[in-house]
Specification:
This protein has 209 residues and is α+β, with helices and mostly antiparallel strands. Helix content is 48%, strand content 9%.
Length: 209
Amino acid sequence: MMKLYYSPLSSNGRRAWATMLHVGLQDKVELVPVDMSKGDHMLPDFLAVNPNHKVPALVDGDFKLWESMAIAVYLCEQAPGQKLWPTTPRGRADVLRWMSWQAAHFGPAMGTFNWENVFTKMMNLPSTPGALEKATKDFHTFAPVLEAALEGKKWLVGDDVTLADFYVGAGFSYEPAAKMPLEPYKNIRAWNQRLLTVPAWLNTAPKLS
């Protein structure tokens, strides 16, 4: 049985966790929670799985895999007939484009809103001066790209939800507490709500106490 190390508060962990649920691998993957607030991610046993001390991480026999993008694709490959990861070269390239775009461009801005407006308060940490101002500028640079791509569409790639939706959508996991400037973007707001109709996505939403 595979082991998926995750935190229910991690957006990256949610990407892998939701993928596992959506493609029906519950009976083949053991969920192993990692309590980062207690330093579980710095323990030798976990560092032997992921030396980057981050979640998620996957163990399949003697194969140890980290990075949520790689883990999500690997899980899809274990589930014949799944639709999250397309079967055609063009479909896969399109999904990979959005996953890469999120990681390199839109994601850092979203992450700043999540950190500054949610996690610093949760952990009683100081905010970073100027961080939200820069994140707001970057957010409005890249959000229009997503807004335009969703015009007249239900999902980012094709007719079904894919890893592109999970990967980009995870950045919004802490809305509305993260206070991202979403008001001008009706397509993004509608799509983000539509994602919550996907059971695997709804069931992995982080729960703030």
